């Protein structure tokens, strides 16, 4: 006699009860220990290599630095793309690893990148600074605070910021604390070159004297028989006043620094990128959680520390919250838990209503057990609670009741037919346990392409497969082990109840002889008799759904439900930080008057720190600023978005601006992008402008622009080399002199406690800011005398490239645009592409026109998922063959898988939901759900035939017997999706599954019997 797990469970009731209680306790404890976060862990496979070359133009940086680094990086072969920009004095190369690389392989790749760049360090131009490497792209600063103090000296504010940074670093689960918008303290020595020339005081004499006086140098030590005594020499600067009074001797004359220069203590001038909060200058304190931490635990700890730290600040200085990820996670997780509870209530209601109170109670008790088993497995595998895993739990909830409903329904039917409790409870094992297991594994396999997707998108959504697979396997274990035990305890004697209510024998009755089942039987018989019509009609509906699918809007990931709005401001390339800050002040005044805003923060000269994992971070630039506006509600966010778009168009028409919501999924940036690459910059730019003109013709796109457009202003000094040599002016020395006069040259460092304050020498404000005075600037010569700059050089005003973009070593210009209204980027891109065909047809050899943005990332994600479909097919066919043991039957069941597309297309169109990446995952998984029901029905038909029933009646009766469990499981799954359909992220997936299951259930009960009869040529008169 073969082993029967259900019978074993009934014979060992105490062990089963112990296992149930153990799972309940372990599951409950595991749930309380699951880490919570907003998004799943996600590896940013990008490294930035930054190199500075002071004094070089963008073209010089591009040729001498950027291209050499790019060439070396290409030798790794492990890149998806290598993008770079070159600015005057600055090179930044972004190496993006292959999307298919595993997260565990990335650290070794970063080591190889560092090694290769170190190998070419000696080939880079002398005078460069770096290269510097940054591979911590994924660090998320979930909590950001703003320290403001109107009226306080900035040095005092900075001192308090340092203290707060130290205190926050000590909080449990804090990984990193950084100060944002910090202005480094400087000591400026502003010398008048005209005055120095008049006094005959060489600039180099001032520099050398300061460097020599303030140097730290060893003075030796005394070694005695018993001890060593260090010798220290005093004389280093102890105050700014000492610097002012410092004497400089030239020949027989002595000057104080204060006689020839103004010495003052201050901060970066021009300022470094800075932060402003609610219209005030601020220092940001950004806090990142350590790996493996719980964001809610960290949030509680920070909340207490935040309250304590506020008490330590002087009156007038405030520490305020800018970003609070724990609060956002608590809200997000709370909403998903609410959806989970709603779905649970719906499933329980379906169970009680359709199965009766005591039968439904069996299902009601199994569901928490399955969830407990799922939580325990999630804890063991390190899967936390976040938007993906919680959505998967809701999705799994609609599926995990299937096996329990099938098992308890089978037990109830057998008891109605007169079976005793033990035999009825253990019958499901011999009848449906293995078809259920096959169906469960097929359903789980439907999510297999997500698990095998080797891409960032696949990594982001992988926990859908993990959680659903865990819950489905747990549900099967519960169905064959716990349901028999609970059914034995809770189910009444159904045969006696029926006899008492309707009369007849207490030995059992046929539950399928009721008027309802007679109508079901008649409907199935009609479909089998008219199998040709049913099959043709189904095929026609499938073809129609394929044709109508092109009308379903396409998307990648939907916008986030977070309350923040991002406002980007970009002035013309080469604009100063002061000009950018002036525009920031204008917008701040307008925001101050707007209701519905919780707070707003501006980052001038750079983008926001990554406070949200999928944030599309912006590069620092003096001509750029970014606002983060936190609305009080979603409704206010949408109102503010419309108002901001109008304000930016009306009040800031000369700026390039963008108002956007936060994204879900891997960051994309502008949804519509077209890239033009080629050898020559001018040709590439001309082609990109043609593309931009075509994009602008579409009425549904706005904010069309090039990422690399206008050149920057430049003043070129044409040196008369003969005259310069005759006067003793060296070109290199002249460049250093001009650098010192205009921007400042470091001459020493002032030490104060643990601070090192740079001492810089530069010209007076008049000499630095009046371009008209440049020709008369007194330039030192080798003889110690000075000559006017106009004697050795002529000035030429012109333009040069302010920035040079490369992609895979080719100059690249990207045409970018936003979407207007409710149109989807993928649909608009498809509309625009045909208009670009004439440009594409005339591209010179070696030039490229490529699609970027949402479409490219979506295709990359879909491609990685599609790569897993062959494995899905192999696994499903293997399971079908093991269960059905027939090529023919397996092929027939497999062909039912795509039919869910009928319902998917219908429901997406009716509910106006887009078909995005998550909906695509749901559609693939739907195939598994459909085949699950099909394999159980076909297996039931084969069992009936093996028990002696003719094929005609086997098809009809098997369908009638499977009608209620198939309808109930589908109803539970569909209704459980209703709460999830309200989710911005999972809504399209839920709608797709709802539509697919509704149609697929009808097809399983009506089309599949007709297909079986046609496939195997079943005739009605076979019984005779």
UniProtKB/TrEMBL annotation:
Keywords on this record?
A: Membrane, Transmembrane, Transmembrane helix
Q: Name one GO cellular component term.
A: plasma membrane
What are the transmembrane regions? Answer: 336-355, 362-382, 388-406, 427-451, 463-486, 533-552, 867-884, 891-911, 917-938, 966-985, 991-1015
SUPFAM superfamilies linked to this entry: Multidrug efflux transporter AcrB pore domain, PN1, PN2, PC1 and PC2 subdomains, Multidrug efflux transporter AcrB TolC docking domain, DN and DC subdomains, Multidrug efflux transporter AcrB transmembrane domain
Question: What Gene Ontology terms describe what this protein does at the molecular function level?
Answer: xenobiotic transmembrane transporter activity
One Pfam family from the record: ACR_tran
Q: Would I find Transmembrane among this entry's keywords?
A: yes
What protein name applies here?
Acriflavin resistance protein
Q: Which organism is it from?
A: Ectopseudomonas oleovorans
Name the gene that codes for it: czcA
């Amino acid at each position: 006699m073969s082993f029967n797990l259900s019978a074993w469970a009934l014979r060992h009731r105490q062990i089963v009860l112990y296992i149930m209680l153990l799972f309940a306790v372990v599951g409950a404890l595991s749930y309380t220990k699951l880490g919570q976060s907003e998004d799943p862990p996600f590896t940013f496979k990008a490294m930035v290599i930054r190199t500075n070359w002071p004094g070089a133009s963008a073209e010089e940086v591009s040729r001498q630095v950027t291209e050499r680094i790019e060439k070396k990086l290409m030798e790794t072969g492990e890149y998806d793309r290598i993008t770079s920009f070159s600015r005057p004095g600055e090179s930044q190369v972004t190496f993006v690893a292959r999307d298919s690389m595993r997260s565990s392989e990335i650290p070794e790749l970063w080591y190889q990148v560092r090694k290769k760049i170190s190998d070419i360090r000696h080939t880079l131009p002398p005078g460069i600074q770096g290269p510097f490497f940054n591979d911590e792209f994924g660090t998320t600063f979930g909590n950001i605070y703003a320290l403001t103090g109107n009226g306080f000296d900035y040095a005092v504010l900075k001192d308090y910021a340092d203290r707060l940074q130290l205190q926050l670093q000590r909080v449990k689960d804090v990984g990193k604390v950084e100060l944002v918008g910090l202005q480094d303290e400087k000591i400026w020595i502003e010398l008048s070159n005209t005055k120095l020339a008049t006094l005959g005081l060489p600039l180099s004499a001032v520099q050398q004297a300061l460097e020599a006086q303030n140097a730290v140098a060893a003075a030796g030590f005394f070694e005695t028989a018993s001890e060593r005594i260090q010798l220290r020499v005093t004389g280093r600067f102890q105050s700014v006043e000492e610097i002012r009074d410092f004497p400089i001797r030239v020949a027989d004359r002595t000057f104080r620094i204060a006689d020839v220069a103004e010495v003052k203590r201050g901060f970066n001038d021009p300022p470094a990128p800075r932060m402003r909060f609610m219209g005030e200058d601020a220092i940001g304190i950004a806090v990142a959680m350590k790996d493996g931490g719980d964001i809610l635990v960290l949030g509680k700890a920070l909340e207490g520390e935040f309250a304590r730290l506020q008490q330590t600040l002087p009156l007038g200085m405030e520490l305020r919250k800018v970003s609070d990820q724990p609060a956002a996670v608590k809200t997000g997780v709370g909403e998903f838990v609410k959806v989970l509870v709603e779905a649970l209530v719906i499933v329980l209601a379906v169970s009680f209503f359709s199965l009766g109170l005591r039968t439904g109670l069996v299902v009601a008790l199994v569901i928490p057990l399955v969830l407990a088993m799922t939580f325990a497995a999630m804890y063991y595998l390190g899967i936390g609670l976040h938007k993906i895993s919680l959505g998967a739990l809701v999705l799994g909830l609609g599926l995990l009741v299937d096996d329990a409903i099938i098992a308890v329904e089978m037990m109830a039917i057998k008891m109605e037919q007169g079976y005793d409790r033990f035999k009825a409870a253990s019958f499901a094992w011999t009848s449906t346990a293995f078809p259920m297991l096959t169906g469960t594994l097929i359903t789980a396999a439907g999510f297999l392409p997500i698990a095998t997707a080797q891409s960032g998108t696949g990594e982001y959504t992988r926990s859908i497969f993990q959680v659903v697979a865990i819950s489905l396997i747990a549900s099967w274990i519960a169905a064959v082990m716990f349901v028999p035990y609970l059914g034995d305890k809770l189910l009444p004697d159904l045969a006696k109840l029926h006899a008492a209510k309707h009369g007849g024998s207490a030995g059992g009755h046929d539950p399928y002889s009721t008027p309802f089942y007679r109508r079901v039987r008649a409907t199935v018989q009609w479909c089998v008799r008219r199998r040709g019509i049913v099959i043709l009609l189904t095929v026609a509906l499938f073809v129609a759904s394929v044709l109508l699918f092109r009308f379903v809007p396409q998307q990648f990931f939907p916008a986030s439900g977070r309350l923040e709005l991002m406002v980007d401001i970009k002035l013309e390339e080469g604009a100063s930080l002061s000009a950018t800050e002036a525009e920031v002040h204008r917008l701040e005044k307008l925001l101050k008057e707007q209701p519905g805003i919780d707070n707003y923060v501006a980052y001038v000269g750079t983008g926001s720190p990554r406070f949200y994992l999928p944030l599309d971070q912006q590069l620092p630039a003096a001509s750029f600023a970014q606002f983060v506006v936190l609305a009080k509600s979603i409704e206010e966010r949408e109102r503010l978005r419309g108002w901001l778009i109008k304000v930016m168009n009306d009040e800031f028409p000369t700026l390039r601006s963008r108002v956007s919501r936060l994204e879900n999924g891997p960051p994309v940036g502008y949804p519509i992008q077209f890239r033009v690459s080629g050898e020559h910059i001018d040709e590439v730019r001309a082609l990109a402008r043609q593309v931009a003109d075509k994009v602008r013709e579409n009425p549904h796109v706005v904010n069309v622009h090039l990422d690399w457009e206008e050149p920057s202003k430049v003043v070129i000094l044409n040196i008369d080399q003969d005259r310069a040599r005759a006067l003793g002016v060296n070109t290199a020395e002249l460049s250093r002199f001009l650098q010192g006069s205009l921007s400042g040259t470091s001459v020493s460092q002032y030490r104060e406690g643990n601070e090192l304050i740079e001492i810089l020498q530069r010209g007076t404000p008049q000499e630095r800011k009046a371009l008209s005075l440049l020709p008369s600037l007194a330039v030192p010569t080798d003889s110690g005398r000075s000559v006017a700059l106009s004697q050795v050089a002529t000035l030429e005003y012109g333009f040069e490239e302010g920035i040079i973009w490369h992609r895979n070593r080719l100059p690249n210009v990207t045409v970018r645009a936003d979407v207007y209204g409710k149109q989807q980027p993928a649909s608009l891109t498809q509309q625009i592409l045909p208009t670009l065909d004439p440009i594409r047809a005339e591209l010179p050899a070696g030039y490229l026109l490529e699609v970027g943005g949402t479409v490219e990332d979506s295709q990359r994600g879909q491609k990685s998922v599609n790569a897993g479909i062959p494995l899905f097919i192999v696994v499903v066919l293997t399971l079908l063959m093991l269960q059905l043991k027939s090529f023919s039957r397996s092929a027939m069941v497999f062909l039912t898988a795509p039919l869910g597309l009928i319902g998917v297309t219908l429901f997406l169109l009716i509910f106006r939901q887009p078909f995005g990446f998550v909906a695509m995952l749901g559609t693939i998984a739907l195939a598994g759900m459909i085949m699950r029901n099909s394999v159980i029905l076909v297996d039931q038909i084969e069992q009936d035939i093996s028990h002696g029933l003719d094929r005609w009646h086997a098809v009809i009766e098997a369908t009638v017997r499977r009608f209620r469990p198939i309808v109930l499981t589908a109803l539970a799954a569909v209704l459980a999706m209703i709460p999830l359909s309200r989710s911005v992220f999972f809504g399209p997936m839920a709608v797709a599954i709802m539509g697919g299951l509704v149609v697929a259930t009808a097809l399983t009960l009506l089309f599949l019997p007709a297909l079986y009869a046609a496939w195997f040529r079943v005739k009605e008169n076979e019984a005779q």
